[in-house]
Amino acid sequence: MRFIPRSVLTLCLLIGIHNLHAKSEGYEADISAERVIYTVKVNADGSDIETKEVTYLARTQIAVESISQADISYTSSTQKVKVLEAYTITPEGKKIPVAKNAIRTVEDDNSGGAAEFSDTKHRIIIFPNVKVGSRIYYKVRTTTHAPLFQRYTAGFSFSPSHDYGHFELNLTHPAKMFIQAESSGVQGGRVEDGPNKEVRYRYTYQNKNKIHPTPPLSVAYEDFSPYIRLSSYQSHIEFARIYEEKTKAMAAVTPAVQKLADQITVGITDPKDQAKALYNWVSREIRYVAIYLKDGGFVPHFADSIIRNRYGDCKDNNTLLIALLAAKGIEASSALINASDSYTLPNLVTFGTFDHMITYLPQWDLYVDATQEFAPFGVLTFDELDKPTLLTALGKVGHTPKPSADKNKVITKIVMKIESDGEIKGVSHTNYFGTADLSARANYEGTGTIHEEKMVRDHLAKFRHTGAGKLMPSDPYDLNHPFEVKTEFTLGAIANVPGHGAIGIPVGLSPGELYKLANRRSAEDYTPPYICGSRTIEERYSIEFTPNVKVTRVPPDVTYKQGDIHYQSSYVQNGNKVEVKRALYTQRPSAVCQAEELEQLKEFFPIFLSDMRSQIFYE
User: Fold this and answer.
1) Could you tell me the pTM of the whole model?
2) Does the CA dihedral 573-574-578-579 come out positive or negative?
3) Strands 48-58 and 135-144
4) Which CATH number among 3.40.50.720, 3.10.620.30, 3.90.550.10, 3.40.50.10540 corresponds to the domain 239-399?
5) How does pLDDT run across 237-265, given as a tens digit for each residue?
6) CATH architecture of 11-232
7) Taken in order 340, 345, 351, 352, is the CA torsion positive or negative?
8) pLDDT value at position 161?
9) Are 86 and 128 in contact (CB under 8 A)?
């Protein structure tokens, strides 16, 4: 589902941090938004006229490439855009106007093959003679004549990674119109009413020369950065009620819906098993195609048309599933959610808060996402866990489950034999559960095709192996059984035999989850709050050397148990065979880690890394 906030500050499209120039207090960005001024007049019906003035400074050649074109996107069925003025200011101060034929309107680009079609258009401004030290200026008026649900919302968030020389928002609305406003980290608020008693707001913000790059695994900056929000909705509950009123008819139980529901559940009497069968059908049979026309970014198609066409986006899959469930007497609700990196629900309703829709089954307190074709019934993607939801049919705010180490598991067994020439022949068997199951199904979809050879080669290269092998996954589309992968592999010589030497623990074609974790960034690179996972990883290795090789030393066992992190490894030698077991259990309090969890990780990571680098010695 695509939600387009009417007035969301999207400077991140331009103000990248590419090559940042270090300063003691932060960084100097390639691009400076020297002036960004919004002037908005909101009408009583929620329509508005928005004028935006922008001046960007290019400090580097990379910035020149970024700002030499401006892209103003809009919904052609509900909005009109007019470029009032546009020019380049050279480093010497000369103003060069943009030619009329350098302002073009283009359709939304679908050349990448994405199954999305919309009435979004783009007004492209091509600036002349832009070079390092140049500034570009444009002034654009956007008129929204058909607001979604006849309401006004706007949200502005300011990333700490972007340079804002001066931001200003001036907004007016009729005195009789209800609009709430809230802000944090900015100057201003409501000011003196206008001459016609219109309500006026003025906000300013500046973040000049205090730029910091976005750290890895950071939550969305909207969750913690300065912001301005305005909304004509009383609450999220009111928005839920209005949304349900507008869309409930789409999920009506028609004869076609009833017939299909009965066909899918024939011979199934248990309600939860019926719900699972209906979910599996929608997940597998409705291919993803998104058509966003007018309110199509929010409003789904009718269930009957989805059945006929066999395609839709997240809100269509949700609508059809709700209709099919209703046909069997099973209650369900649409659940609006943010499936990106945001984990908070703002106090005020803005359309940018939600970007996806899943389904909630209150009878079992269960969330399902029928848009995810590889997600077993009741399994959510990692990005959907521990998130607030808006349950439209129930008129309340919900919350998806927290990540669980007991449910999200990867268990692997590997048997390897080192041949007399140092080559290794082995097999592995991996079982996936929970969110890990969902991810693995997608990763192994290409096996058994022309892509498998490259998949094998790329996988071995990740762990600095050479060789060949075969991947034998279970059916990724069989959502009724946990996913598993068996492999057979031969690795190029990594042991110098005969002779004295040492080897680390090879991964082969197993997923190598613990090695992947060890090869990630150091904990020192993370800054709270950051996104973190809870999971269980168990790996067992059986390594057999040839009879003429003597194992002289194995690594010491390791046991670590502090806070949320439990890790244990053991190395048992039996003649020329070594049995290795490594197990990591991490159960975080939330999907978002704070300073306390980061300190635990910093303490654990060197111990873990040392164990992963340990070797078996032989002669």
Assistant:
1) 0.91
2) negative
3) antiparallel
4) 3.10.620.30
5) 999 999 999 999 999 999 999 999 999 99
6) Sandwich (2.60)
7) negative
8) 86
9) no
92-133 residue pLDDT tens: 999 999 999 999 999 876 545 556 777 889 999 999 999 999
Average pLDDT over residues 328-342: 97
Residue whose pair of structure tokens reads 């590997």 in the numeric block: 414
Contact between 466 and 492 under an 8 Å Cβ cutoff? The reply is: yes
DSSP secondary structure string for all residues of 451-485: THHHHHHHHHHHTT--EEEEEEE--TT-TTS--EE
CA 95 to chain centroid, in Å, comes to 41
Residue 89 β-bridge partners = 95, 135
Distance between CA atoms of residues 377 and 280, nearest Å: 7
pLDDT digits (tens, 9 = 90+) for 145-161: 988 888 999 999 999 88
The span from the CA of 416 to the CA of 27, in Å, is 50
Cβ contacts of 256 within 8 Å, gap of 6 or more? 303, 304, 307
Asked if 236 contacts 397 with a C-beta cutoff of 8 angstroms, the reply is yes
Q: Domain boundaries in the chain?
A: 11-232, 239-399, 409-618
Tokens representing 24?
A: 């003691």
Give how far the C-alpha of residue 505 lies from the chain's centroid of Cα atoms, to the nearest Å.
Answer: 33
Residue 393 corresponds to which tokens in the numbers above?
């049919």
- pLDDT score of 16 more than 60: no
For the record, the structure tokens of 253 come out as: 């139980």
Q: Are 240 and 149 in contact (CB under 8 A)?
A: no
As a whole number of angstroms, the distance between CA 235 and CA 181 comes to: 12
- The Cα–Cα gap between 356 and 378 comes to 17
Cβ neighbours of residue 138 under 8 Å, at least 6 residues apart? 53, 54, 70, 83, 85, 86, 87, 98, 125
CATH architecture assignment, domain 409-618: Sandwich (2.60)
Most trustworthy range by pLDDT among 273-282, 293-302, 520-529: 273-282
Sequence length of the chain is 619
Question: Where would I find the beta strands (DSSP E) of 197-296?
Answer: 199-207, 227-231, 287-288, 290-292
Residue 579 in tokens? 């049995």
Q: Given this model, what pLDDT does residue 108 score?
A: 77
**What 8-state DSSP symbol labels residue 370?**
T
Check if 11-232 and 409-618 are the same fold. Answer: no
Measure the CA–CA gap between 454 and 475, rounded to whole angstroms: 20
Question: Looking at the predicted structure, is the pLDDT value of residue 18 above 50?
Answer: no
Q: Which two tokens stand for residue 140?
A: 């654009």
* Cis omega (within 30 of 0) for bond into 511: no
460-478 mean pLDDT = 94
**Number of Cβ within a 10 Å radius of residue 18:** 15
